[in-house]
Amino acid sequence: MTAEARKRSSGVGTSPRPARGAAREFPVELDRSLDTPLPVQLAAALREAIDAGTLRPAEPVPATRELARRIGVARGVVVASYEQLIGEGYLVAVHGRGTAVHPELAGAGQAGAGAARTGGAGATQPQEARRALAGDGEAARSAKPLRPPQAAAEQRGEPLAPGEPIPSAINSPAWRAAWREAAARAHLVAPPLGDQRLREEIADHLRRMRATARAATDVVVTAGTREGLGLLLTSLGTTHGRGLVVGVEDPGLPSLRGVAARHGARIVALPTDSEGLDTSRLPEGVLDLVIVTPSHQYPLGGSLPLVRRRELLAWAKRGGVIIVEDDFDSELRFTGSPLPTLAALDDQVTGSVVLLGTFSRTVAPALSAGYLLAPESIRAMLTPVRRELGGPVSSVVQFALAHYLGTGELRRHTARLLRRYAQRRDLVSERLAGIAGVRVRPMDGGLHAVLEFVGDDAAQLRRREQLAVRLANEAGLGAQPLGGYWQRRGTGMAGLVIGLGGSVDAEFDRALRELAAVLRAAHPAA
After folding, report:
1. 324: Cβ–Cβ under 8 A, 6 or more apart, which residues?
2. Are residues 382 and 177 in contact, defined by beta-carbon separation less than 8 angstroms?
3. Does a cis peptide bond (omega within 30 degrees of 0) precede residue 294?
4. Is residue 344 a contact partner of residue 368, using CB atoms and an 8 Å limit?
5. Which candidate, 303, 351, 297, places its Cα nearest to that of 328?
6. What is the helix (H) or strand (E) element at residue 520, kind and residue range?
7. CA 208, CA 259: separation in Å to the nearest integer?
8. What is the pLDDT along the chain (526 residues), one digit of tens a residue?
9. Contacts of 506 (CB under 8 A, 6+ apart)
10. Phi, psi of 131, deg, nearest 5
11. Whose CA is closest to 130, among 243, 235, 237?
12. Of 84, 194, 379, 421, which residue has the fewest beta carbons closer than 10 angstroms?
């Protein structure tokens, strides 16, 4: 970027508060020599200005044409950046009044910045609060277990089972070259926390793909999200010396809920709505740990707004609660760029967020490889346990992944996957359109689709769900009951959850046609 262009790309405000309706200036520095797209750079600059207080809640931001002219980029760059930040909750657009910083950010605070952890929640947990919530845990234990999506997908002949990526999508020259490189180093053993090069590549991957800038030392290589959560729970168990209390979203993904239960934790259901976890209803002084999916709530797909993210961080800081951010498929977002992680808002030293990531969705489940990102205070608990237990991922797998990430091929592969999943999402809407009493819920990303049964009679909808699941199982399709994702049986929606991967294109289309016949047959009027 030329010196003249750099000069055009920066602007600094001088007045403490702009006049009503006037857009405040803010620093912008765009570097065209970087691999990072200009809309992503501009969004990061705006995000930083809002977090730093340079741009304040309810203050207008420059019009897209004006900002594009000032920093010397196409208007589309600014439009894309604004749309991304509107989706994240940083900005809000009002018809006829332009775009402004979201006014609700005023009361959310800057939770997580420089916050010191105050110890486990168990020391101050009131017994009355525990007993008041015991019913949720009992209901969770007594509810009929839902087959985890990936376990369902492991059974052959189930083309619509949730949790599986498109088969053979990873088979490419770059992938084969990565394994040849790894085979040449098969005599080496990776350290317990993971191969250093892989940790560095994962940190770079999070910076580029998830807007999360953290040091490689914060990364621990895992055998996937379940193993990473198991490591954390084991570490907490040794420090707390008692049973843990774990909060989970209701509805939510059953796999991590099951891991916590297997470690002896008491499970507490936490209510959600269309935007994800309802942070206004979080219990005080009860939980040791909470598992959340802020970027893509499962299975309904809500994205936690920025205001709630900050409320969640502030709540965790007050109670000494650890937040486990399950980032299972957040990179697979059809509209806009992937949302930044909750960990990106957290303090890198004394923070509360442990990010769990996996390569099962974007690379291949057979790898059984993933990562954990933890602030220094929590990582200090994990490290001795990992060193004692040893690393769970083979060195060859780690070397191959490091090489593959280093070439940038995973980012290109993810872009190709997004196009294919978007096509399959559209095919779902096309094949299942017009079926009485069935609504295909809109989804911004992910590997699954939700088919909601609509009607006034809840009992009848539940019977239709049961019949549809039975018929789908008989047809070998692998669809899962939507109601099964709620911990308290009979309290949630009725419908089906289906996967967008797990079969070749022709098989996927055939399965959708069969599912359409199943849904029609399960209708009460059939």
Report:
1. 229, 232, 256, 289, 290, 291, 292, 353, 354, 356
2. no
3. no
4. no
5. 297
6. helix 505-521
7. 30
8. 444 344 334 433 333 333 344 566 677 878 888 877 888 889 888 988 888 788 888 889 999 988 988 888 999 889 889 988 888 888 998 777 789 999 888 755 444 333 333 333 333 333 333 333 333 333 333 333 455 444 444 444 689 999 888 866 677 888 999 999 999 999 999 999 999 999 999 999 998 888 899 999 999 999 999 999 999 999 998 666 678 999 999 999 888 999 999 999 999 999 999 899 999 999 999 999 999 999 888 999 888 999 999 999 999 999 999 999 998 777 777 666 667 799 999 999 999 999 999 998 888 888 899 999 999 999 999 999 999 999 999 999 999 999 999 999 888 888 888 888 889 999 999 999 999 999 999 887 788 999 999 999 999 999 999 999 999 999 999 999 999 999 876 678 999 999 998 788 899 999 999 999 999 999 987 6
9. none
10. -65, -35
11. 243
12. 379
Q: Could you give the CA distance from residue 321 to residue 318 in angstroms, rounded to a whole number?
A: 8
Instruction: Look up residue 89 and give its DSSP letter.
Output: T
Nearest to 295 by CA among 209, 419, 424: 209
Yes or no: say if 202 and 196 are a contact pair by the CB < 8 Å rule: no
| Cα three-residue angle 231-409-500, rounded to 5 degrees | 70
Two tokens at 277? 């976890």
Q: Structure tokens of 225? A: 């999200």
AA identity, residue 334: F
Distances (CA, A) of 465 to 14, 228, 498, 518, 519: 61, 34, 13, 11, 9
Integer-rounded Cα radius of gyration of the chain: 24
What is the per-residue burial (b if ≥16 Cβ within 10 Å, else e) of 349-382? ebbbbbbbbbbbbbbbbebbbbbbbbbebbbebb
The tokens for 303 are: 């994205």
Two tokens at 355? 């990010």
- Amino acid identity of residue 20, one-letter, is R
**What type of residue sits at position 206?**
L
- Residue 484 structure tokens: 């099964």
What does the block give as tokens for 76? Answer: 């589309």
Query: Phi and psi (nearest 5°) for 445?
Result: 175, -170
Residue (of 411, 425, 410, 416) closest to 367 by Cα position: 410
